[in-house]
Protein backbone atom coordinates (compact mmCIF):
# COMPACT_ATOMS: atom_id res chain seq x y z
CA UNK A 1 0.00 0.00 0.00
CA UNK A 2 2.89 2.34 0.77
CA UNK A 3 3.45 2.91 -2.93
CA UNK A 4 0.06 4.59 -3.22
CA UNK A 5 0.76 6.94 -0.34
CA UNK A 6 2.59 10.22 -0.56
CA UNK A 7 6.02 9.72 0.93
CA UNK A 8 5.61 12.22 3.76
CA UNK A 9 2.49 10.36 4.95
CA UNK A 10 4.32 7.11 5.00
CA UNK A 11 7.14 8.64 7.00
CA UNK A 12 4.78 10.32 9.44
CA UNK A 13 2.81 7.15 10.11
CA UNK A 14 3.94 5.18 13.14
CA UNK A 15 5.65 1.95 12.25
CA UNK A 16 2.96 -0.70 12.10
CA UNK A 17 3.68 -4.33 12.52
CA UNK A 18 1.88 -6.02 9.66
CA UNK A 19 -0.43 -8.88 10.48
CA UNK A 20 -0.02 -12.31 8.94
CA UNK A 21 -2.07 -13.21 5.90
CA UNK A 22 -2.76 -16.94 5.73
CA UNK A 23 -4.68 -18.65 2.94
CA UNK A 24 -6.64 -21.80 3.81
CA UNK A 25 -6.64 -24.01 0.75
CA UNK A 26 -6.88 -27.65 -0.40
CA UNK A 27 -7.51 -28.11 -4.11
CA UNK A 28 -10.37 -30.52 -3.48
CA UNK A 29 -13.64 -29.12 -2.29
CA UNK A 30 -15.59 -30.20 0.75
CA UNK A 31 -12.61 -31.13 2.87
CA UNK A 32 -13.37 -28.41 5.40
CA UNK A 33 -11.62 -25.20 4.34
CA UNK A 34 -14.50 -22.96 5.41
CA UNK A 35 -15.11 -24.78 8.68
CA UNK A 36 -11.39 -24.63 9.42
CA UNK A 37 -11.23 -20.91 8.60
CA UNK A 38 -14.16 -20.12 10.91
CA UNK A 39 -12.86 -22.24 13.78
CA UNK A 40 -9.25 -21.17 13.52
CA UNK A 41 -10.35 -17.53 13.33
CA UNK A 42 -12.57 -18.00 16.38
CA UNK A 43 -9.78 -19.72 18.29
CA UNK A 44 -7.27 -17.00 17.43
CA UNK A 45 -9.77 -14.33 18.49
CA UNK A 46 -10.26 -16.19 21.78
CA UNK A 47 -6.54 -15.58 22.38
CA UNK A 48 -7.15 -11.86 21.99
CA UNK A 49 -5.83 -11.54 18.44
CA UNK A 50 -7.54 -9.20 15.98
CA UNK A 51 -8.69 -11.42 13.13
CA UNK A 52 -10.22 -10.71 9.73
CA UNK A 53 -11.75 -13.61 7.80
CA UNK A 54 -11.99 -13.09 4.05
CA UNK A 55 -14.31 -15.25 1.95
CA UNK A 56 -12.61 -15.55 -1.44
CA UNK A 57 -15.27 -17.85 -2.90
CA UNK A 58 -17.05 -15.27 -5.05
CA UNK A 59 -20.32 -16.71 -6.31
CA UNK A 60 -20.36 -19.62 -3.85
CA UNK A 61 -19.77 -18.00 -0.51
CA UNK A 62 -20.40 -19.95 2.68
CA UNK A 63 -18.20 -18.54 5.41
CA UNK A 64 -21.02 -16.20 6.48
CA UNK A 65 -23.30 -19.21 7.08
CA UNK A 66 -20.73 -21.09 9.16
CA UNK A 67 -20.30 -18.00 11.34
CA UNK A 68 -24.05 -17.42 11.54
CA UNK A 69 -23.66 -13.98 9.97
CA UNK A 70 -25.59 -14.52 6.72
CA UNK A 71 -28.33 -12.04 7.55
CA UNK A 72 -25.84 -9.40 8.65
CA UNK A 73 -23.87 -9.27 5.43
CA UNK A 74 -24.63 -6.00 3.70
CA UNK A 75 -21.63 -5.43 1.44
CA UNK A 76 -19.00 -7.69 0.00
CA UNK A 77 -15.45 -7.85 -1.35
CA UNK A 78 -16.41 -6.58 -4.79
CA UNK A 79 -18.23 -3.56 -3.33
CA UNK A 80 -14.96 -2.62 -1.66
CA UNK A 81 -12.81 -3.33 -4.72
CA UNK A 82 -15.14 -1.27 -6.89
CA UNK A 83 -15.04 1.61 -4.40
CA UNK A 84 -18.77 1.51 -3.66
CA UNK A 85 -18.19 1.31 0.07
CA UNK A 86 -15.21 1.68 2.38
CA UNK A 87 -13.50 -1.32 3.85
CA UNK A 88 -14.91 -0.39 7.26
CA UNK A 89 -18.45 -0.44 5.98
CA UNK A 90 -17.99 -3.90 4.49
CA UNK A 91 -16.46 -5.59 7.53
CA UNK A 92 -19.12 -7.51 9.46
CA UNK A 93 -18.38 -7.80 13.20
CA UNK A 94 -18.76 -11.36 14.45
CA UNK A 95 -21.64 -12.14 16.81
CA UNK A 96 -19.60 -14.21 19.20
CA UNK A 97 -15.99 -13.03 19.12
CA UNK A 98 -15.30 -9.40 19.75
CA UNK A 99 -12.05 -9.14 17.81
CA UNK A 100 -13.26 -11.08 14.78
CA UNK A 101 -14.65 -9.61 11.55
CA UNK A 102 -15.84 -11.09 8.27
CA UNK A 103 -15.39 -9.72 4.78
CA UNK A 104 -17.98 -11.62 2.75
CA UNK A 105 -17.73 -12.70 -0.87
CA UNK A 106 -20.23 -11.49 -3.46
CA UNK A 107 -22.82 -14.20 -4.04
CA UNK A 108 -24.38 -13.11 -7.30
CA UNK A 109 -21.16 -12.21 -9.06
CA UNK A 110 -18.40 -14.13 -10.82
CA UNK A 111 -14.83 -14.85 -9.83
CA UNK A 112 -13.63 -13.32 -13.08
CA UNK A 113 -14.79 -9.92 -11.84
CA UNK A 114 -12.10 -9.81 -9.19
CA UNK A 115 -8.75 -8.44 -10.30
CA UNK A 116 -5.75 -10.17 -8.87
CA UNK A 117 -3.83 -6.98 -8.12
CA UNK A 118 -6.82 -5.42 -6.36
CA UNK A 119 -7.09 -8.48 -4.18
CA UNK A 120 -3.42 -8.24 -3.28
CA UNK A 121 -3.90 -4.59 -2.26
CA UNK A 122 -6.99 -5.37 -0.23
CA UNK A 123 -5.25 -8.05 1.81
CA UNK A 124 -2.33 -5.68 2.35
CA UNK A 125 -4.72 -3.09 3.80
CA UNK A 126 -6.25 -5.66 6.12
CA UNK A 127 -2.80 -6.70 7.32
CA UNK A 128 -2.24 -3.18 8.58
CA UNK A 129 -5.20 -3.46 10.90
CA UNK A 130 -5.43 -7.08 11.94
CA UNK A 131 -3.02 -9.53 13.53
CA UNK A 132 -4.33 -12.32 11.33
CA UNK A 133 -6.03 -12.24 7.96
CA UNK A 134 -7.37 -15.69 7.11
CA UNK A 135 -8.42 -16.16 3.50
CA UNK A 136 -10.94 -18.91 2.76
CA UNK A 137 -9.95 -20.16 -0.69
CA UNK A 138 -12.45 -21.64 -3.16
CA UNK A 139 -12.07 -25.24 -4.32
CA UNK A 140 -10.10 -25.84 -7.46
CA UNK A 141 -7.03 -24.23 -8.95
CA UNK A 142 -8.56 -21.69 -11.28
CA UNK A 143 -8.71 -17.90 -11.04
CA UNK A 144 -10.50 -17.97 -7.68
CA UNK A 145 -7.56 -19.90 -6.24
CA UNK A 146 -5.02 -17.51 -7.73
CA UNK A 147 -6.88 -14.48 -6.34
CA UNK A 148 -7.13 -16.08 -2.91
CA UNK A 149 -3.42 -16.78 -2.60
CA UNK A 150 -2.06 -13.57 -4.11
CA UNK A 151 -2.20 -11.49 -0.93
CA UNK A 152 -1.16 -14.26 1.44
CA UNK A 153 2.32 -14.98 2.67
CA UNK A 154 1.55 -18.26 4.37
CA UNK A 155 -0.69 -21.22 3.58
CA UNK A 156 -2.54 -23.82 5.58
CA UNK A 157 -3.60 -26.81 3.52
CA UNK A 158 -6.55 -28.86 4.70
CA UNK A 159 -6.65 -32.52 3.72
CA UNK A 160 -8.95 -35.41 4.54
CA UNK A 161 -7.51 -38.93 4.79
CA UNK A 162 -8.66 -39.92 1.30
CA UNK A 163 -6.48 -40.67 -1.68
CA UNK A 164 -8.21 -38.15 -3.90
CA UNK A 165 -7.86 -35.35 -1.34
CA UNK A 166 -4.20 -36.20 -0.81
CA UNK A 167 -3.56 -36.11 -4.54
CA UNK A 168 -5.27 -32.72 -4.87
CA UNK A 169 -3.41 -31.26 -1.90
CA UNK A 170 -0.14 -32.50 -3.32
CA UNK A 171 -0.93 -30.68 -6.54
CA UNK A 172 -1.83 -27.48 -4.67
CA UNK A 173 1.39 -27.62 -2.65
CA UNK A 174 3.23 -27.83 -5.96
CA UNK A 175 1.33 -24.85 -7.36
CA UNK A 176 1.92 -22.79 -4.22
CA UNK A 177 5.66 -23.17 -4.56
CA UNK A 178 8.08 -22.28 -1.80
CA UNK A 179 6.81 -18.85 -0.86
CA UNK A 180 3.93 -19.93 1.37
CA UNK A 181 5.59 -22.39 3.79
CA UNK A 182 2.47 -24.59 3.74
CA UNK A 183 1.42 -26.33 6.93
CA UNK A 184 -1.04 -29.20 7.15
CA UNK A 185 -4.31 -29.81 8.96
CA UNK A 186 -5.71 -33.30 8.58
CA UNK A 187 -9.48 -33.11 8.83
CA UNK A 188 -12.27 -35.64 9.33
CA UNK A 189 -10.14 -38.47 10.58
CA UNK A 190 -12.12 -41.49 11.75
CA UNK A 191 -9.81 -43.36 14.12
CA UNK A 192 -12.08 -46.41 14.07
CA UNK A 193 -11.72 -46.73 10.31
CA UNK A 194 -7.98 -46.19 10.50
CA UNK A 195 -7.75 -48.94 13.09
CA UNK A 196 -9.59 -51.30 10.76
CA UNK A 197 -7.26 -50.40 7.93
CA UNK A 198 -10.03 -48.74 5.98
CA UNK A 199 -8.79 -45.18 6.14
CA UNK A 200 -5.39 -43.57 5.66
CA UNK A 201 -3.67 -42.71 8.93
CA UNK A 202 -2.05 -39.38 9.76
CA UNK A 203 1.31 -41.00 9.08
CA UNK A 204 0.12 -42.33 5.72
CA UNK A 205 -1.07 -38.92 4.62
CA UNK A 206 2.06 -37.18 5.73
CA UNK A 207 4.35 -39.83 4.31
CA UNK A 208 3.13 -38.50 0.96
CA UNK A 209 2.75 -34.80 1.68
CA UNK A 210 5.67 -34.31 4.10
CA UNK A 211 4.42 -31.03 5.54
CA UNK A 212 4.67 -29.60 9.07
CA UNK A 213 1.57 -30.87 10.87
CA UNK A 214 -0.53 -28.19 12.56
CA UNK A 215 -3.22 -30.47 13.84
CA UNK A 216 -5.65 -33.33 13.35
CA UNK A 217 -9.42 -32.93 13.58
CA UNK A 218 -11.63 -35.97 14.03
CA UNK A 219 -14.81 -36.49 12.03
CA UNK A 220 -17.75 -35.95 14.31
CA UNK A 221 -21.40 -34.96 13.88
CA UNK A 222 -20.85 -32.01 16.24
CA UNK A 223 -19.08 -30.20 13.41
CA UNK A 224 -22.09 -30.54 11.11
CA UNK A 225 -24.44 -29.41 13.87
CA UNK A 226 -22.41 -26.36 14.88
CA UNK A 227 -21.85 -25.46 11.23
CA UNK A 228 -25.56 -25.62 10.48
CA UNK A 229 -26.25 -23.51 13.56
CA UNK A 230 -23.63 -20.95 12.63
CA UNK A 231 -21.76 -21.35 15.90
CA UNK A 232 -18.17 -22.46 15.40
CA UNK A 233 -17.17 -25.30 17.70
CA UNK A 234 -14.07 -23.36 18.77
CA UNK A 235 -16.34 -21.03 20.78
CA UNK A 236 -16.23 -23.78 23.38
CA UNK A 237 -13.21 -24.34 25.54
CA UNK A 238 -13.80 -27.98 26.33
CA UNK A 239 -14.21 -31.06 24.21
CA UNK A 240 -11.70 -32.86 22.05
CA UNK A 241 -12.40 -31.06 18.79
CA UNK A 242 -12.62 -27.59 20.31
CA UNK A 243 -9.33 -28.25 22.12
CA UNK A 244 -7.76 -29.39 18.88
CA UNK A 245 -8.68 -26.07 17.25
CA UNK A 246 -7.31 -24.11 20.20
CA UNK A 247 -4.06 -26.07 20.00
CA UNK A 248 -3.85 -25.31 16.27
CA UNK A 249 -4.42 -21.61 16.98
CA UNK A 250 -1.66 -21.65 19.61
CA UNK A 251 0.70 -23.31 17.14
CA UNK A 252 -0.18 -20.78 14.45
CA UNK A 253 0.46 -18.00 16.96
CA UNK A 254 3.92 -19.40 17.46
CA UNK A 255 3.49 -21.12 20.79
CA UNK A 256 5.42 -24.28 21.34
CA UNK A 257 2.52 -26.67 21.73
CA UNK A 258 3.37 -30.38 21.80
CA UNK A 259 2.72 -32.09 18.49
CA UNK A 260 -0.71 -33.66 18.07
CA UNK A 261 -0.94 -37.08 19.67
CA UNK A 262 0.03 -39.73 17.15
CA UNK A 263 -3.35 -41.07 16.08
CA UNK A 264 -2.98 -44.74 15.29
CA UNK A 265 -0.12 -45.99 13.27
CA UNK A 266 -1.27 -48.81 11.01
CA UNK A 267 -0.23 -48.21 7.46
CA UNK A 268 -2.71 -48.39 4.67
CA UNK A 269 -0.51 -46.91 2.00
CA UNK A 270 1.22 -50.16 1.16
CA UNK A 271 -2.09 -51.74 0.29
CA UNK A 272 -2.98 -48.88 -1.98
CA UNK A 273 0.19 -48.92 -3.95
CA UNK A 274 1.32 -45.78 -5.65
CA UNK A 275 -1.61 -43.69 -6.71
CA UNK A 276 0.62 -40.99 -8.05
CA UNK A 277 1.83 -43.40 -10.67
CA UNK A 278 -0.21 -41.85 -13.47
CA UNK A 279 1.69 -40.56 -16.45
CA UNK A 280 2.77 -36.95 -16.23
CA UNK A 281 2.32 -34.88 -19.35
CA UNK B 1 -29.03 -42.64 -31.98
CA UNK B 2 -26.49 -40.74 -29.94
CA UNK B 3 -26.42 -41.37 -26.20
CA UNK B 4 -27.56 -39.09 -23.41
CA UNK B 5 -25.07 -36.52 -22.17
CA UNK B 6 -25.42 -35.76 -18.49
CA UNK B 7 -23.27 -33.49 -16.38
CA UNK B 8 -22.90 -34.33 -12.68
CA UNK B 9 -22.40 -31.06 -10.84
CA UNK B 10 -22.90 -29.38 -7.45
CA UNK B 11 -21.20 -26.01 -7.03
CA UNK B 12 -19.67 -27.01 -3.72
CA UNK B 13 -16.81 -29.44 -3.75
CA UNK B 14 -16.59 -32.65 -1.81
CA UNK B 15 -20.27 -33.47 -1.87
CA UNK B 16 -19.69 -36.62 -3.93
CA UNK B 17 -19.78 -35.73 -7.63
CA UNK B 18 -16.96 -38.10 -8.56
CA UNK B 19 -18.23 -40.95 -6.40
CA UNK B 20 -21.71 -40.48 -7.85
CA UNK B 21 -20.41 -40.41 -11.41
CA UNK B 22 -18.36 -43.58 -10.91
CA UNK B 23 -21.09 -45.55 -9.17
CA UNK B 24 -23.94 -44.43 -11.37
CA UNK B 25 -21.79 -45.20 -14.40
CA UNK B 26 -21.02 -48.67 -13.05
CA UNK B 27 -24.70 -49.27 -12.26
CA UNK B 28 -25.70 -48.32 -15.81
CA UNK B 29 -22.95 -50.50 -17.28
CA UNK B 30 -24.14 -53.38 -15.12
CA UNK B 31 -27.50 -53.00 -16.83
CA UNK B 32 -25.75 -53.46 -20.15
CA UNK B 33 -25.58 -49.82 -21.13
CA UNK B 34 -22.54 -48.50 -22.96
CA UNK B 35 -21.21 -45.76 -20.70
CA UNK B 36 -18.40 -43.21 -21.06
CA UNK B 37 -17.37 -41.25 -17.97
CA UNK B 38 -15.56 -37.99 -18.65
CA UNK B 39 -13.41 -36.35 -15.98
CA UNK B 40 -13.71 -32.61 -16.59
CA UNK B 41 -11.59 -31.67 -13.56
CA UNK B 42 -8.44 -30.74 -15.44
CA UNK B 43 -5.54 -30.34 -13.02
CA UNK B 44 -7.31 -32.09 -10.14
CA UNK B 45 -8.55 -35.31 -11.67
CA UNK B 46 -9.82 -38.06 -9.40
CA UNK B 47 -12.29 -40.18 -11.33
CA UNK B 48 -9.46 -42.51 -12.37
CA UNK B 49 -8.61 -43.12 -8.68
CA UNK B 50 -12.17 -43.85 -7.68
CA UNK B 51 -12.34 -46.52 -10.41
CA UNK B 52 -8.84 -47.81 -9.74
CA UNK B 53 -7.70 -47.01 -13.29
CA UNK B 54 -4.98 -44.46 -12.50
CA UNK B 55 -2.14 -46.62 -13.75
CA UNK B 56 -3.74 -47.26 -17.11
CA UNK B 57 -3.85 -43.66 -18.27
CA UNK B 58 -1.96 -43.07 -21.50
CA UNK B 59 -3.69 -40.10 -23.14
CA UNK B 60 -6.08 -37.53 -21.69
CA UNK B 61 -8.87 -35.11 -22.53
CA UNK B 62 -6.55 -32.20 -23.40
CA UNK B 63 -4.53 -34.35 -25.77
CA UNK B 64 -7.73 -35.37 -27.55
CA UNK B 65 -8.72 -31.68 -27.78
CA UNK B 66 -5.34 -30.78 -29.20
CA UNK B 67 -5.61 -33.54 -31.78
CA UNK B 68 -2.58 -35.37 -30.43
CA UNK B 69 -4.53 -38.61 -30.26
CA UNK B 70 -7.90 -40.06 -31.20
CA UNK B 71 -10.74 -40.15 -28.68
CA UNK B 72 -10.80 -43.96 -28.80
CA UNK B 73 -7.09 -44.07 -27.94
CA UNK B 74 -7.67 -41.97 -24.83
CA UNK B 75 -10.64 -43.97 -23.54
CA UNK B 76 -9.69 -46.41 -20.80
CA UNK B 77 -11.78 -49.53 -20.53
CA UNK B 78 -12.91 -50.35 -17.04
CA UNK B 79 -11.39 -53.46 -15.44
CA UNK B 80 -14.74 -54.93 -14.46
CA UNK B 81 -17.36 -53.71 -16.90
CA UNK B 82 -16.88 -54.36 -20.58
CA UNK B 83 -19.16 -51.48 -21.57
CA UNK B 84 -17.72 -48.83 -19.21
CA UNK B 85 -14.88 -46.50 -20.19
CA UNK B 86 -13.39 -43.32 -18.81
CA UNK B 87 -11.84 -40.32 -20.50
CA UNK B 88 -9.35 -38.97 -17.95
CA UNK B 89 -8.60 -35.30 -17.39
CA UNK B 90 -5.09 -33.96 -17.80
CA UNK B 91 -3.40 -33.66 -14.41
CA UNK B 92 -0.63 -31.18 -15.13
CA UNK B 93 -2.57 -28.69 -17.22
CA UNK B 94 -4.96 -25.83 -16.45
CA UNK B 95 -8.67 -25.74 -17.07
CA UNK B 96 -8.24 -23.13 -19.79
CA UNK B 97 -6.20 -25.66 -21.78
CA UNK B 98 -9.50 -26.56 -23.46
CA UNK B 99 -12.36 -24.45 -24.83
CA UNK B 100 -16.09 -24.97 -24.45
CA UNK B 101 -16.37 -25.69 -28.18
CA UNK B 102 -13.64 -28.32 -28.04
CA UNK B 103 -15.22 -29.92 -25.00
CA UNK B 104 -18.64 -29.99 -26.59
CA UNK B 105 -17.24 -31.64 -29.72
CA UNK B 106 -15.50 -34.36 -27.72
CA UNK B 107 -18.63 -35.12 -25.72
CA UNK B 108 -20.72 -35.26 -28.89
CA UNK B 109 -18.25 -37.69 -30.40
CA UNK B 110 -18.23 -39.84 -27.26
CA UNK B 111 -22.03 -39.93 -27.28
CA UNK B 112 -22.05 -41.41 -30.79
CA UNK B 113 -20.72 -44.69 -29.50
CA UNK B 114 -22.38 -44.76 -26.11
CA UNK B 115 -25.79 -44.88 -24.45
CA UNK B 116 -24.66 -42.55 -21.67
CA UNK B 117 -21.91 -39.97 -21.34
CA UNK B 118 -21.59 -38.83 -17.72
CA UNK B 119 -19.47 -35.73 -17.20
CA UNK B 120 -17.81 -35.33 -13.81
CA UNK B 121 -17.80 -31.56 -13.28
CA UNK B 122 -15.16 -29.76 -11.19
CA UNK B 123 -16.23 -27.84 -8.08
CA UNK B 124 -17.07 -24.18 -8.49
CA UNK B 125 -18.66 -22.19 -11.27
CA UNK B 126 -15.61 -21.05 -13.20
CA UNK B 127 -14.23 -22.09 -16.58
CA UNK B 128 -14.08 -25.77 -15.67
CA UNK B 129 -17.78 -25.73 -14.82
CA UNK B 130 -18.69 -23.93 -18.06
CA UNK B 131 -16.74 -26.49 -20.09
CA UNK B 132 -18.38 -29.43 -18.35
CA UNK B 133 -21.85 -27.98 -18.83
CA UNK B 134 -21.25 -27.00 -22.45
CA UNK B 135 -21.18 -30.64 -23.49
CA UNK B 136 -24.31 -31.70 -21.61
CA UNK B 137 -27.98 -31.94 -22.49
CA UNK B 138 -29.11 -32.90 -18.98
CA UNK B 139 -27.82 -32.31 -15.48
CA UNK B 140 -27.70 -34.16 -12.19
CA UNK B 141 -27.11 -31.89 -9.21
CA UNK B 142 -25.57 -33.58 -6.20
CA UNK B 143 -25.94 -31.97 -2.80
CA UNK B 144 -25.52 -32.89 0.84
CA UNK B 145 -28.15 -31.84 3.41
CA UNK B 146 -26.06 -28.91 4.61
CA UNK B 147 -26.90 -25.24 4.33
CA UNK B 148 -23.69 -24.35 2.49
CA UNK B 149 -24.00 -27.15 -0.04
CA UNK B 150 -27.64 -26.30 -0.73
CA UNK B 151 -26.88 -22.63 -1.25
CA UNK B 152 -24.17 -23.56 -3.75
CA UNK B 153 -26.47 -26.07 -5.45
CA UNK B 154 -29.13 -23.39 -5.74
CA UNK B 155 -26.67 -21.09 -7.47
CA UNK B 156 -25.75 -23.87 -9.90
CA UNK B 157 -29.41 -24.68 -10.59
CA UNK B 158 -29.83 -21.04 -11.62
CA UNK B 159 -26.93 -21.33 -14.03
CA UNK B 160 -28.26 -24.59 -15.48
CA UNK B 161 -31.70 -23.03 -15.90
CA UNK B 162 -30.10 -20.27 -17.96
CA UNK B 163 -29.01 -23.00 -20.36
CA UNK B 164 -32.42 -24.72 -20.21
CA UNK B 165 -30.96 -28.06 -19.11
CA UNK B 166 -33.34 -30.51 -17.45
CA UNK B 167 -32.10 -31.01 -13.87
CA UNK B 168 -32.50 -33.82 -11.38
CA UNK B 169 -31.31 -34.01 -7.80
CA UNK B 170 -29.36 -36.54 -5.77
CA UNK B 171 -29.25 -35.90 -2.02
CA UNK B 172 -26.02 -37.45 -0.82
CA UNK B 173 -24.67 -38.39 2.62
CA UNK B 174 -27.97 -38.26 4.42
CA UNK B 175 -27.72 -39.21 8.08
CA UNK B 176 -31.26 -40.27 9.02
CA UNK B 177 -30.56 -40.29 12.75
CA UNK B 178 -29.41 -36.66 12.56
CA UNK B 179 -32.52 -35.72 10.60
CA UNK B 180 -34.55 -37.39 13.29
CA UNK B 181 -32.91 -35.39 16.06
CA UNK B 182 -33.41 -32.21 14.08
CA UNK B 183 -29.69 -31.74 13.49
CA UNK B 184 -29.82 -32.25 9.74
CA UNK B 185 -32.12 -31.03 7.00
CA UNK B 186 -34.44 -33.71 5.65
CA UNK B 187 -34.74 -34.68 1.99
CA UNK B 188 -38.11 -32.89 1.93
CA UNK B 189 -36.46 -29.70 3.20
CA UNK B 190 -33.78 -29.91 0.52
CA UNK B 191 -36.30 -30.58 -2.25
CA UNK B 192 -38.45 -27.71 -1.11
CA UNK B 193 -35.56 -25.26 -1.29
CA UNK B 194 -34.17 -26.42 -4.61
CA UNK B 195 -37.50 -27.29 -6.27
CA UNK B 196 -36.08 -29.80 -8.73
CA UNK B 197 -37.03 -33.39 -9.42
CA UNK B 198 -35.57 -35.94 -6.99
CA UNK B 199 -33.54 -38.72 -8.61
CA UNK B 200 -32.04 -40.39 -5.58
CA UNK B 201 -31.22 -40.37 -1.88
CA UNK B 202 -27.88 -41.81 -0.78
CA UNK B 203 -27.25 -42.29 2.95
CA UNK B 204 -23.89 -41.54 4.53
CA UNK B 205 -22.15 -44.85 4.91
CA UNK B 206 -18.55 -45.58 5.86
CA UNK B 207 -18.38 -48.34 3.23
CA UNK B 208 -18.17 -45.72 0.49
CA UNK B 209 -14.88 -44.38 1.90
CA UNK B 210 -13.39 -47.84 1.82
CA UNK B 211 -14.57 -48.77 -1.67
CA UNK B 212 -13.50 -45.39 -3.03
CA UNK B 213 -10.03 -45.75 -1.52
CA UNK B 214 -9.74 -49.21 -3.05
CA UNK B 215 -10.91 -47.99 -6.43
CA UNK B 216 -13.89 -50.35 -6.51
CA UNK B 217 -17.39 -49.12 -7.33
CA UNK B 218 -19.71 -50.02 -4.47
CA UNK B 219 -22.17 -51.31 -7.07
CA UNK B 220 -19.92 -54.35 -7.44
CA UNK B 221 -19.98 -55.45 -3.84
CA UNK B 222 -22.74 -58.04 -3.52
CA UNK B 223 -23.46 -57.23 0.12
CA UNK B 224 -23.15 -53.47 -0.28
CA UNK B 225 -25.92 -51.36 1.15
CA UNK B 226 -25.22 -48.53 -1.23
CA UNK B 227 -24.92 -50.67 -4.36
CA UNK B 228 -28.66 -51.22 -4.36
CA UNK B 229 -29.23 -47.49 -4.04
CA UNK B 230 -27.15 -46.63 -7.09
CA UNK B 231 -28.86 -49.37 -9.08
CA UNK B 232 -32.20 -47.80 -8.24
CA UNK B 233 -30.95 -44.41 -9.35
CA UNK B 234 -29.79 -45.94 -12.64
CA UNK B 235 -33.24 -47.45 -13.18
CA UNK B 236 -34.91 -44.09 -12.48
CA UNK B 237 -32.58 -42.47 -14.95
CA UNK B 238 -33.75 -45.03 -17.51
CA UNK B 239 -37.31 -43.91 -16.93
CA UNK B 240 -38.53 -46.64 -14.58
CA UNK B 241 -40.71 -45.63 -11.67
CA UNK B 242 -38.84 -46.91 -8.64
CA UNK B 243 -40.07 -46.10 -5.13
CA UNK B 244 -37.60 -44.25 -2.90
CA UNK B 245 -36.09 -46.18 -0.02
CA UNK B 246 -37.59 -45.04 3.25
CA UNK B 247 -34.82 -44.31 5.70
CA UNK B 248 -37.28 -44.22 8.55
CA UNK B 249 -37.85 -47.96 8.54
CA UNK B 250 -36.31 -49.71 11.50
CA UNK B 251 -34.45 -52.32 9.48
CA UNK B 252 -32.41 -50.05 7.30
CA UNK B 253 -32.07 -47.47 10.00
CA UNK B 254 -30.70 -50.01 12.45
CA UNK B 255 -28.13 -51.22 9.97
CA UNK B 256 -27.15 -47.74 8.97
CA UNK B 257 -26.87 -46.56 12.52
CA UNK B 258 -24.63 -49.52 13.30
CA UNK B 259 -22.42 -48.61 10.38
CA UNK B 260 -22.19 -45.02 11.49
CA UNK B 261 -21.32 -45.94 15.01
CA UNK B 262 -18.61 -48.21 13.69
CA UNK B 263 -17.28 -45.39 11.57
List the SSEs and their pairings.
The complex is a heterodimer of chains A (281) and B (263).
Chain A: H1 7-12, E1 20-25, H2 33-46, E2 51-55, H3 63-66, H4 77-81, H5 87-90, E3 92-93, E4 100-103, H6 116-129, E5 132-136, H7 143-150, E6 154-159, H8 163-176, E7 183-189, H9 191-195, H10 202-209, E8 213-218, H11 221-229, H12 240-252, H13 269-272
Parallel strand pairs in A: 1-5, 1-6, 2-4, 2-5, 6-7, 7-8
Antiparallel strand pairs in A: 3-4
Chain B: E1 4-9, H1 17-30, E2 35-39, H2 47-50, H3 61-65, H4 71-74, E3 76-77, E4 84-87, H5 100-112, E5 116-120, H6 127-134, E6 138-143, H7 147-162, E7 167-174, H8 176-180, H9 187-194, E8 197-203, H10 207-214, H11 225-237, H12 250-262
Parallel strand pairs in B: 1-5, 1-6, 2-4, 2-5, 6-7, 7-8
Antiparallel strand pairs in B: 3-4
Helix pairs in contact in B: 1-11, 5-6
- Tally the structural domains of chain A: 1
Give the mean pLDDT of chain A. Answer: 89
Average of pLDDT of chain B:
92
- CATH architecture designation of chain A: 3-Layer(aba) Sandwich
Q: Calculate Rg of chain A over CA atoms.
A: 19 Å
Largest interface: A-B, 47 and 53 residues
Number of strands of chain A: 8
Number of helices of chain A: 13
Q: Give the CA-based shape of chain B.
A: globular
